[in-house]
Amino acid sequence: MKVTIDDVVLPGDFCEDIIKAGEKSRVILGPGLRKELEKIFITKAGVLRKRAPNTYWVDSYQKRYVPARGENVIGVVIQKAGDSFRVDVGGSCSATLSYLSFEGATKKNRPEVQVGDVIYAKMLVASKDMEPELVCVDSNGKKGRLGVLNDGFVFKCSINLVRKILNPSCPLLNSLKNEWPFELAAGMNGRIWIKANSMRETIAVGNAILGCEYLTSEEIKSMCTNIASILAGHVS
Amino acid sequence: MTTKRPQLPKSVLEMKFMRKTRERIEKELENTQGHDSLYSNIITNEMRHATGNFISESSFIFCEDLLEGRLSYKGMNPEIERLMEQDIKTSDPDGEMQKDVSDEILYKKMEALNKKRKSNDTPNKNPVLKKKKKF
Predict the structure, then answer these.
(1) Which pLDDT score, from 0 to 100, does residue A149 have?
(2) For B8-39, how does the pLDDT look when each residue is reduced to its tens digit (9 = 90+)?
(3) Do B55 and A28 count as a contact with CB atoms less than 8 A apart?
(4) Which of helix, strand or coil describes residue A108?
(5) Does A209 have pLDDT greater than 90?
(6) What region, left, alpha or beta, does residue A82 occupy, with left being phi > 0 and alpha being psi -120 to 50 degrees?
(7) Which of A18, A80, B8, B92 has the highest CB neighbour number within 10 Å of its CB?
(8) DSSP A25
(9) Per-residue confidence at A120, pLDDT binned at 50, 70, 90?
(10) What is the mean pLDDT of chain A?
(11) Of A119, A149, A179, which closes a domain?
């Protein structure tokens, strides 16, 4: 069926608007879109979205992570294999993380990473036919925000929820950030790591994140004030 | 082929001691011409006429404008908060700058300045003319 922007789309639908845009200038086809012959086909069920100038993608509900290059993910080290670590990121197979791809690591000076550690890393290689590769440094050799996540609490959620809370228009983080100190790492693989000073606060952050999946912006704001008042009432 | 390599003249290649070179050159020629026929069953017309206007991207991070996924608030992790501040500074260096002089004051000052200039312009014309005469 022919569809247009902001329609609910199903796999097999095609969009002629994108073809027209592609005749004039470059077009970025995001997840859920595929060019086949002279048509753009939808490959996921969801809502067809557009962002100016020429970016199209399908906003779909998904819990299975498919590794993609450049994404920041949260993984668990499951094995030390010679000169690399095997890291479970929730994809179809585990990812490799070289011990040299940490800040300041050399062959003699190995990073202190143990099996079972939670790490925040960037996807360097993610292709259909090879296992993904992670790094914990940027192109300048600095660790930036990447590396081992100590303490805290990890939970899984849908990939949509991660995108929702990281969207600048989502009021969740803005309404929580002035309430109590907390730290958060959101992986694009649908895992979120949180850390706060007390268990009560950690649970509050986790519940706030999980609760906002199907709420509107207004509802999120009221939920956050609600949680904050409950927390303030009990902590005397 | 646009770049032409220097070629030996035919008369030289026909000499007896150039047999090996001649054979090699013939082989090279065959190789370059043989490519089209060799892959003709694989290379389709579509491949020849395919244009690169569509870029496939498998990640949402290049489609949506998302925040960096590592955040810290109220001094939980000062290192991350410093990075967050740096990011905000670099992301909009030419955003709303604070005005030292309000628009109204600027307008009044500029008006006064323009009036001054106009009054200055009239007496200034004569010395300029004088200068021209000198040349």
Answers:
(1) 93
(2) 888 888 888 888 888 888 888 887 776 666 67
(3) yes
(4) coil
(5) yes
(6) left
(7) A18
(8) S
(9) very high
(10) 91
(11) A149
**Count of Cβ atoms closer than 10 Å to residue B42 Cβ:** 7
Across A100-117, average pLDDT: 90
**Which residues of chain A are within 8 Å of residue B78 when distances are taken between CB atoms?**
none
Across B3-38, b (16+ Cβ under 10 Å) vs e yields: eeeeeeeeeeeeeeeeeeeeeeeeeeeeeeeeeeee
Cβ–Cβ under 8 Å, residues B53 and A26:
yes
**Residues, chain B, total?**
135
Q: Which residue of A has its CA nearest to B86?
A: A144
Q: Which residue of B has its CA nearest to A126?
A: B58
> Which residues of chain A neighbour B57 with C-beta distances below 8 Å?
28-31
Domain positions in chain B: 10-46, 101-135
Write out residues 178-197 of A within 8 Å (CB-CB) of B. Answer: 178, 180-188, 195-197
On the CB side of A91, CA atoms within 13 Å amount to 28
ipTM above 0.85, yes or no: no
Is the Cβ of B120 closer than 8 Å to some Cβ of chain A? Answer: no
Domain boundary among A149, A164, A186: A149
Report the b/e string of A197-206 with b at 16+ CB within 10 A.
eeeebbebbb
- Of how many residues is chain A composed? 236
Q: Residue B55 pLDDT > 80, yes or no?
A: yes
Residue B93 is predicted with a pLDDT of: 61
Tokens standing for A126? 């993610």
pLDDT of residue B134: 55
Out of A34, A51, A69, the one facing B63 most closely (by C-beta) is A51
Alpha carbon of residue A3 to chain centroid: 28
B103: three-class secondary structure by DSSP = helix
Asked whether the predicted pLDDT for residue A222 surpasses 60, the reply is: yes
- Give the rounded percent of residues in chain B with a pLDDT score beyond 70: 71
> Which residue in chain B has the smallest CA separation from A144?
B83
Q: Which amino acid does the sequence have at A51?
A: R
What is the extent of the structural domain holding A135? 72-149
pLDDT digits (tens, 9 = 90+) for A42-54: 999 999 999 888 8
Domain assignment present for residue A138? The answer is: yes
Predicted confidence band of residue A177 (pLDDT cuts 50, 70, 90): confident
